[in-house]
Description:
Layout: H1 3-7, H2 22-42, H3 51-76, H4 84-99, H5 103-106, H6 111-139, H7 141-175, H8 179-210, H9 214-250, H10 260-278, H11 287-311, H12 340-349
Amino acid sequence: MSDDADSRLVLSWSKAIATGNDGIDSDHMKLFDLIQKLHEATSPKTDFSSDSSISEIIKSLREYTQYHFSREEKFMESFPYDDIDFHKRAHAGFVTRVGEVDERSVHADDGGQSLVRFLYDWLNSHICNIDQVMVAKFIGVDKDADFQNGQTTIVINGAFNVALSIEKLSTQLKYETHPERRSQIRSILGKSSEHLINLVSLADYRVQQFGCPIGERTRLNGIRNAVQASACTLAENYARKIVQYGQSILSRQSSVTLGCGTVMTTWIATMNMLIELGVKNPNALTHETYQMFADAYRIANEVCDKERQVTRLTAFGKEANTGPSKFEMPPIFSSRVASQGDVLASTALHPNTAET
Length: 356
C-alpha cells in the first residue's frame, strides 16, 4: 500500500464485528475512533500533528481501554462464562503492552504507524475471536447460530459488492485507451482486490469457526473466482511487505516491536490464503518469487522470536508453557522441483557442493 493510500486508510468499526451488545459495541466504536486519530496524527502526510497531541491520544487510548475492559469484565461476571479467566488474561496482556509503549519511539520513524497496525489488528482479532463468542454465550445457544450466520452474511454481502465493482472496473480497463486513466483504474483495482481478499479471508474464518448456510457457502465460492485472477500477485505483495517490515525491525530501523508478531500473524494468514487460491503450480513460479515467499516465512519467524525476547510476555491468554508456533511454507510448495535458478542460487551459497 502506498503512503498516499495508507494516509487515507479508515480504521473504523463495522457491523461485521458487532457483538450484539449495544454497550460493548459502543465502547469498541470509541476505541476504533481513537486508533483512527492516532493513525492520522502519526501519518507521514500529516503536517499539523505535534508530540503533545500524539501523547494525548495515547493517554486517552490507555484510559479508555482500561475503562472498557473494566465494564466488559463486570458483564462477563454477570453470567456463567467458562472462558472468563482466559478473557481476563487477554485483557491484562494488552494493558501491559500498551502501558509499556515508549512514546519517544512513537514519534520517530514508522513507530506510530507500527503501533496503529498492532492496535487495529489486535482489537479486530480480539472482538471476532473472543468478544463475539462471549456475547453469544450470554444470549444463549439457540440464538448463537442465528447471530453468527447473520454476521457471516454481512461479510459475504460486502465481498459480493466489492467483487461487482471489480468486474465493472475490469470492463472499464478493457476499453479504456488513455494511459493516465488506465493507470488510475489499475490502482483502484489493486486496492479493491486487496479489500476483497481481506473480506474473503474473514468470511472463510467465520465459516470454519461457526458454520454457514449452504446458500451462503455457494455465494462465497462464486466470489472466490473474482479473487483467483489476482491472488498470486497479491500474495507476492504481502510477501514483499512482510520482508520489508520485518527487516526494518530486525535492523532496528523501526524501534517499536510492540505487537509486531500480531501484524506478522495476520499478514502470513492472508498470504497463505492467497497462495492457496492463486498458486496452482509451484513449479511455474520464478526463483525470485519462490525466494520471496521463503524469505517472508523466515523473517516473520525471526520477528516473532525477537518480540518474545524483548517483551518476555506470553501470547494473549495463553499459559507460559505453551510453545510458540512457527510459520511454515504451505504444503503445496513441497512438490516444487528445484529450478535451474534454485540450483544456481544454492551453488552460489555453498560452492563446495557443486558437481565436479
